[in-house]
Amino acid sequence: MKRFGSLVLAAVLGSVITIVATQNFVKQPVQGVKIEHVNGLPVSQVAYTTNEKGEVVPLDFTGTAENVTQAVVHIRSTQENRTSSNSQVPDAFRHFFFDSPFENQMPRQSTGSGVIINKDGYIVTNNHVIEGSEVVQVTLSDNRELKAEVIGTDPDTDLAVIKVNAKDLPYLSFVNSDQTKVGQWVLAVGNPFNLNSTVTAGIISAKGRNINIINSNKQNRYGEQNVSTAIESFIQTDAAINPGNSGGALVDLNGGLVGINTAIASPTGSYSGYGFAVPANIVSKITEDLISFGTVQRGWLGINVSNVSSDLVKENDLAVNEGAFVAGFGDAPDKSAAKAAGIKEGDVVVKLDDTSIKSNTALIEYIGRKRPGDKVSVTVNRSGKEIVIPITLKNRDGNTNTVKREEKADVAALGLELEELDSKVLKRLDVTSGVKVKTLDAKLKRSGMREGFIITHVDDRAVKSTKEVNEIIKKKKSGDLITFAGIYEDYPREYIYALRM
């Protein structure tokens, strides 16, 4: 009995020792690794916000998403390369027509998004969504399909305004994009990959981004080469934006329009973490101009600016480390409002009115919201001293007049070079009149037209000379449709090409 009692006691003591040893082993951290624990709410705290009463409530996107998707539309634009008769060529014979007028005759389509900004059917989208299109089709959130009219475009901001014939549509209101902050929640709404009414959430990850994607090199209406007049000061977001989101809405949690989604930064062409939107303050100004005037009324300081960098500070002995450095007055200094007002090369613009300017992008964005005739108070740092200079902005022509919608003056402005045809050639081709296309630009080539095309009719009107073609084109306005009918010497059948001015 004593022996049994001893065995029981030994077993109990052994169990206690084992439990204590095990507990000590579990609590002992791995040598060299320190794991910290903090008191307070878990990470899910970011899913809470405050309501109008100041009460903490769960963050909920559903109401905003439901309202915003009703005002975001799907856009399908078509570039039609039409011929007067069936140009279908059997597969067995297609190798005979390589690089011939039979090529590139199929209509080309692009898709994107748009935002209704007015109950009467005005829609803002990206210029690149509808550029060069002959037909623009809009699908509303209730699946109605409507043909849209192009009201105006602005390649310098990659914005465009179109309109559908409908009333009492749901629409979004603009917010002051200057008051948005990095870290603020936003939703991106659009139609990526033709997936209608897609909503993604993220934050504003940066502001004032210039990524050099708009009109980096082009010829302007003054014939100047390699002139960049783009206004880029994008809102950067990590809300997922993909192809098809272009022209869609970036909104705050109240459903206010913060910007128009325009671009992504991606090595693959799909979302990889960053998207970019044109700020609402720029969108508002551009759309108002396009609706009211048909073209953008853009105020110009008439200066070339660059960012203030550490190298620039050393080279020019500058007294500030931020701002927009005045590098010159462009190719027409006599038309520069800034030079006329007393701005000097080497000045650093540090403030416009009451807005601090920390970069050339900030200056371009601020002035981009102004019109000719607007007055701006410009503060410059000159050799360490701040000077305030009032300036009245001008247009590109050096005055304060309202700019009219640019109209195509002649065939050269349209991108065509024509030559007269000898009567013997006309007789051989069995046509009574026509002019020959000597050269044409890339836009016209995209329509399917090729050098050597003999234009016999413009808008169903027979033409006998380049002068007659010019007279017809001069009567056209931007956005008007024009058709060219004719033949090729080696393909004696009629072709018709249509494009917008």
Structure report:
This protein is an alpha+beta fold and 501 residues long. It folds into three domains: 57-296, Beta Barrel (Thrombin, subunit H); 304-392, PDZ domain (Pdz3 Domain, Roll), CATH 2.30.42; 411-500, PDZ domain (Pdz3 Domain). 20% of the residues lie in helices and 31% in strands. The protein has eleven helices and 26 strands. It has helices spanning 2-27, 62-69, 127-130, 280-293, 310-316, 337-341, 360-368, 411-414, 423-429, 442-446, 466-474, and strands at residues 48-50, 56-58, 72-79, 108-116, 122-126, 135-139, 145-154, 159-164, 185-190, 198-209, 234-237, 249-251, 257-265, 274-279, 304-307, 324-328, 348-352, 355-356, 375-382, 385-392, 416-420, 435-440, 454-458, 461-462, 481-488, 491-500. Strands 3-4-5-8-7-6 form a six-stranded antiparallel beta barrel. It has a six-stranded antiparallel barrel with strand order 9-10-11-14-13-12. Strands 15, 16, 17, 18, 19 and 20 form a six-stranded antiparallel β-sheet that branches. Strand 6 and strand 7 form a beta hairpin. The longest helix is centred in the first third of the chain and has 26 residues, at 2-27. It is globular. The termini are far apart.
